[in-house]
Amino acid sequence: VKNTEWWRGCVIYQVYPRSFFDSNGDGIGDLPGLVEKIPYIASLGVDAIWVSPFFTSPMKDFGYDVSDYCDVDPIFGTLSDFDDVIETAHKFGLKVLIDQVLNHTSDQHAWFKESSSSLDNPKSDWYVWVDPNPDGTIPNNWLSVFGGPAWQWHSRRRQYYLHNFLSSQPDLNFHNPDVIDAVLDTVRFWLDRGVDGFRFDTANYFFHDVELRNNSAKEEVEEGSIGVRADNPYAYQFHEYDKSRPENIAFLKRLRALMDEYPETTTVGEVGCDFALETMAKYTQGGDKLHMCYSFDLLTHDSSMTHIRKTMEEIEGGLGDGWPCWSIGNHDVERVASRWAEKDEQINHERSKIHMAMLLSMRGSVCLYQGEELGLPEGQLTYDQLVDPFGIEFWPDFKGRDGCRTPMPWTSKQNGGFSDGTPWLPVVDAHLPYAAEQQEAESESILQTYKTFLAFRKQHPALVSGDIEFLHDDKETLMFTRTSPTETLLIALNTGAEKAALSLSEAKFAFPDSSESTALRQIEIPIGLTSGTRVDTDIHLAP
Ligand code: TEU
Ligand code: CA
C-alpha cells in the first residue's frame, strides 16, 4: 500500500556526513561510514534520514558550495556508495532525504566558469551580474549572511556578481528560465536514483529583486537571532529585496509538480528571514508547493516555556493548512544542550530529556540533529581549531558552527571511535562520556530515553496529529493536551531544578474514570514524571 502521507508527523534524523562515521581512516566521515551506521539510526525509531551535502565541492562551506550537483565528492565516496545508502536505508525501513543547495553554486562549478568567462557566452546570464555604478561602487546595499557586501567584483567580466553567502558561492539567477530547467534537472536526477525527498537549502533566497532596490534599515534587532550580533550589519537590514520574493511561488509550484511525478516523496524548505511565518505559510499552504518548511524559531537561545508556547501557537495559527516541521538543533547552531542550558550551569541531562519530550510532543514533523539523541553539549574549540569561515569572520562573539559539527562519539576510545585517522575536527574529550556505546548499556541514558519516547510517539497518533490545547505555561513549565478521536494525552513538562505543582482544575477535559490511563503511565516511564489522572489532581513534576 502506498502511503503518500508518511511525511506528516515523521521524525527525520539529520546526518552531517563529514562528522558521522569515517570508514577509511582519512579523518572525514563518508557514505560507506553512513551505511555502516544505518542500523544504529534505524534502532532509534526515526522514520527518515536527511543527509547534508555530499556532492562534489571545493568544501569552502563544507559541501554547501556545490561544483557538481550530480556526483559524489570523492572524499565521501562514489555514486554507487550513495546507491548503497538508499538500498540499506530502505531495507531498514528508513526514507532518505538529501540536501539540495539550489540558490548558489560553487565558483568552481562549470556553469560559473562558463558564465564568468565573457559577457556573451550561452550561460552569461545564469548568475546575477551587474555593472558597477558610474563611480565604480557596488550596485546596492545588500549584505551577505557571512559578512560584508553581497557583491563580489569579477575582473574578467568587469562586473559584480551577487553572493548571499561566501563570495565563492555565487547566487544563480532564477529569473532566467534556463537556470530553472537546469536546477529541476538535478532534482530529477536524484529522484530517479531513488531518494524519497529533499531538504531545500535557503528555500526563500532563490529570487532577488530584478530592480535591485535597496533593503531598508532596521532600527532594532531581535535578541538571539541566528548568526546575528550587534556588530553584524546584516541584522540591521530588513531583507525584503534580496530574498523572499513573490516570484518564488511559481517556481515552488513547478518543483512540486515534479515531486508529484514521484509518489511518496516529500520536501522540507529551510526558511530563515524576517516574517518567516508568513513566508512558510505561503510556501506550504494549498498542497501545491513545499510539503513542509522549518523555521529558526526554536534555534535561538530563548528556551523559556513561555517562548516555546508562543512559538507553537503562532506557527499553529499562522500556517493554516500548512504542516509544521520543528527542530531545536542543526549543523548551523550551537548544540541545544548548551544553548538551552541555564547560564553557568553544568549540562543537565534530565533537562535534555524534557526538551526531547517537548519536541516530540509537538504537532507536526520533527528534525533531530545527529548527537542530539546523545545529549551532546557544544564542542568547545579554540580559535586555532576553527575551520568554519562564518565562525572565523565573526569570532569571538559568534564562535561559528564548528562546535556543533565535531564528530560523533561512538565509543569512549580514542577519537570516539569515529576514525582511525586524525579527524577533520577534533572529537572533543567532553563528548567521550556521552558515547553511543556507553549509553546503549545504560537504561536511563538520554539515548535510551529517546528510543523509548520515539516508540511511544509511534503508538500515539494524538501526539503527532492530534489537536493541541495549552493549559499552562511559565518560564519553566508547560502543560498541554493532545487529543485524537481515541485518546487525550496530557503533556506536562518541567525544565526547572525544583518540583513544580501544576493544577489541572482549569482543564476543560476530563480523564477517563478508570485509574491511570496507559498513556500517562507510559509517559511516566520514559521521562520520570509523575502525573495526575483526574481533573482535580495536583501534579508534581521534577526533572
Ligand atoms: O543556511 C542558511 C543560513 O545560514 C541562513 O538561513 C542564515 O542563518 C539566516 O538567514 C540568518 O538570518 C544554509 C545551510 O544550512 C548552511 O550550512 C550553509 O552554510 C548556508 O545555507 C549556505 O548554503
Ligand atoms: Ca573517510
If you had to describe this structure to a student in words, what would you say it looks like?
β9 (197-200), α5 (248-260) and β10 form a beta-alpha-beta unit. With 543 residues, this protein is of the alpha/beta class. The two termini are 42 Å apart. The chain has two domains: 11-103 and 177-455, Alpha-Beta Barrel (TIM Barrel); 465-541, Immunoglobulin-like. The protein has helices spanning 31-44, 79-91, 110-115, 177-192, 248-260, 276-284, 305-319, 336-339, 349-359, 389-394, 436-440, 446-459, 461-465, 518-527; strands at residues 11-15, 48-51, 55-56, 68-72, 95-100, 129-130, 151-154, 159-162, 197-200, 266-270, 292-294, 323-327, 365-369, 467-473, 477-483, 488-494, 500-503, 538-541. Bound molecules: 1-O-alpha-D-glucopyranosyl-D-fructose (TEU) and calcium ion. Calcium ion binds at residues 22-24, 26, 28, 30. InterPro entries: GH, GH13_cat_dom, Glyco_hydro_b, O16G_dom_2. Keywords: Glycosidase, Hydrolase. Belongs to the glycosyl hydrolase 13 family. Residues 14-405 form the Glycosyl hydrolase family 13 catalytic domain. This is Alpha amylase catalytic region.
